[in-house]
Amino acid sequence: MATKEYAGKLLELDADGNLKNISDWNEDIAKAIAVEEEIPALTERHWAVINYMRKEYSEKGDAPSIRKLTKESGVDTKELYSLFPKGPAKKAARIAGLPKPKGCI
Amino acid sequence: MNEPIKKVSIIVSKGTLDGIYPGLIMANGARMEGIEATLFFTFFGLHAVIDKKMDKIKVATVGNPAMCVPSAMGPGLPTWMGAIPGMSWFATGMMKKEMEKLDIPPVREFITMIHDAGCEIYGCKATVDMFHLSKKDFCPEVDDVISVGQFYEKSAGAQIIFT
User: Fold this and answer.
1) B135: which residues sit within 8 A by CB, 6+ positions away?
2) pLDDT, tens digit (0-9, with 9 covering 90-100), for B111-131
3) Domain that residue B29 falls in
């Protein structure tokens, strides 16, 4: 099992490199993962996406589609891609401490 | 480990619902994964980006032996039944309802979403000339009408996918 230290805690990771246990997550860990994803500072807009994704995951058991995310989080497609360049859904899920999204849309 | 795909260039050549969506889903999926994407619409595929046609895309119920009712594992729809007026409209409605459940957007919304995601969208010059179309017939997301030569230039370093 792969493990890695984030924000001073040794955490278990899944095969995609995402947190294995959602309950391990906290805001400092999110910041540390974000740096690894080449996002040096998380703004209020990043948090809007991350918090929405965590809420959706806790209710539905999977990360939301990009369409749902842009409609309900208040962050539109263009902004989402500029906040999380090179793979918004995948990166935001990883920073939010969730597994890689399963959906195709 | 194999080199990850960095760029895709997707050609959409068919104007039916099932001809258009795979290309759109692949283009959107590429952008979601951080892969550069270009969409090139040619022949009847252009209907996906013609302003007056894109909201009326239908599934073909004639000449489609895989067409089954009421769902994919049901019996095949006989060709003559597929030709009954309204059949294509009905089948399209059924399919769209299933797609909405999966959060797959209608064509117009999908094209906007894909373009906002940074995918470039082009129309094929040969078809535009043949169908007597011009840039103003297209939705605003179409970046340009280009020749096959320009298409290959823009596809430099990309995997080309024909649908």
Assistant:
1) B123, B142, B144, B145
2) 999 999 999 999 999 999 999
3) 1-55+107-163
- Please give the model's pTM, rounded to 2 decimal places: 0.91
**E strands, chain B, in order:** 7-12, 36-41, 120-124, 144-146, 159-162
Question: Rounded to the nearest 5°, which phi and psi values hold at B39?
Answer: -110, 135
Same domain, residue pair B133 and B157: yes
Residue B161 β-bridge partners: B10
B33 to A90: CB separation less than 8 angstroms, yes or no: yes
The number of C-beta contacts closer than 8 angstroms across A and B is: 43
The gap from C-alpha A8 to its chain's centroid, in whole angstroms, comes to 19
Residues in CB range of A30: below 8 A, 6 or more apart: A42, A50, A95, A96, A97
Q: Which amino acid is at B54?
A: M
**B33–A68 CB contact, under 8 Å:** no
Q: Where are the domains of chain A?
A: 3-95
For residue B25, list chain A residues with Cβ-Cβ distance below 8 A. Answer: 104-105
Interval A62-73: pLDDT, tens? 888 889 899 998
Q: Is the backbone peptide bond immediately before B70 cis, with ω within 30 degrees of 0?
A: yes
Q: Is B103 in contact with A90 (Cβ distance < 8 A)? A: no
Chain A nearest CA to B87, separation (Å): 28
CA nearest B106 in A: which residue?
A: A67
User: Are B20 and B107 spatial neighbours (Cβ–Cβ below 8 Å)?
Assistant: yes
* Å between A12 CA and nearest CA of chain B: 23
Tell whether B51 and B114 lie within a shared domain: yes
Question: Quick one: B74 and B146 in the same domain?
Answer: no
Neighbours of B41 (CB within 10 A): 28
Query: Is position A104 annotated as part of the catalytic site?
Result: yes
Scanning every residue of chain B, which has its alpha carbon at the shortest distance from the alpha carbon of A67? B103
